[in-house]
Design goal:
Layout lengths: L4 E6 L6 E6 L10 E5 L7 H6 L2 H7 L2 E6 L16 H12 L6 E6 L3 H10 L6 E5 L9 H4 L16 H10 L4
Parallel strand pairs: 3-4, 3-5, 5-6
Antiparallel strand pairs: 1-2, 2-4
C-alpha cells in the first residue's frame, strides 16, 4: 500500500496535541469511515502505528487518526478550564474528523476523555469501542441508557477484574 502516515500538532483549546493520521488510498474523501484511537496510560499514538493498527485501518478504507492525550507522548498539558468533552469536541473539529464521523476507540485511562465525549457530544460520533475504560462506573446506568443511536462494542480482558467492572457499566448503552 502507498499510504503514508502524517504526523503533526493540533491546538484544541490551546493545548499542543500530537496526532498521526493514515488516510486510505484516495485520501480522506475516499474513506468509508474514520476511527479516532485514544490510548491508555502506558502508551501513546505511536503504539497504534507500531502495532500496525493505523495501516490495517487505512488498508481497509478507513481514515485512522491517533492522538497523544494531554500530558502524554509529544502533547503538552492542558491550560484551559473547559470540560474534557469540550476538549475532545474541539480536537475533532480541529483535526477535521467530522465527515465521516469517527468511531471512538478508548482504552483504559482514556475513558476520562471518551466517556464525557460520548455523553455530551454523541452527535459527533458514529460508534464506540470502549476497552475497559476508567471512570465508567462513576456514571449512573440511566445516563448510559440515554446514549441512543451509537453502535457500541464493549471490550475487556479476561483477566482484567477492574476493567471488567468498568466495562459492565457500559452494557447499559442501548
Amino acid at each position: 500500500s502507498q499510504q503514508q502516515e502524517v504526523t503533526g500538532f493540533a491546538q484544541p483549546l490551546g493545548c499542543k496535541t500530537a496526532y498521526r493520521i493514515m488516510e486510505p488510498a484516495g485520501g480522506a474523501a475516499a474513506a468509508v469511515g474514520a476511527v479516532l484511537l485514544l490510548h491508555g496510560q502506558r502508551y501513546t499514538s505511536t503504539t497504534w502505528a507500531d502495532l500496525g493498527t493505523l495501516r490495517v485501518l487505512a488498508d481497509s478504507g478507513v481514515r485512522a487518526v491517533a492522538v497523544d492525550l494531554p500530558g502524554f507522548g509529544q502533547s503538552g498539558l492542558r491550560i484551559d478550564h473547559e470540560t474534557d468533552a469540550d476538549f475532545m469536541a474541539a480536537l475533532l473539529d480541529e483535526l477535521g474528523i467530522t465527515a465521516p464521523k469517527p468511531v471512538l476507540l478508548f482504552p483504559s485511562m482514556s475513558g476520562k476523555y471518551g466517556i464525557p465525549l460520548m455523553l455530551d457530544y454523541p452527535e459527533k460520533l458514529s460508534g464506540l469501542v470502549p476497552i475497559a475504560p476508567v471512570g465508567a462506573t462513576s456514571i449512573f446506568s440511566d445516563i448510559y441508557e440515554q446514549v441512543e443511536g451509537l453502535p457500541t462494542l464493549v471490550v475487556w480482558g479476561q483477566n482484567d477484574r477492574a476493567g471488567h467492572a468498568q466495562s459492565q457499566a457500559l452494557l447499559a448503552i442501548p
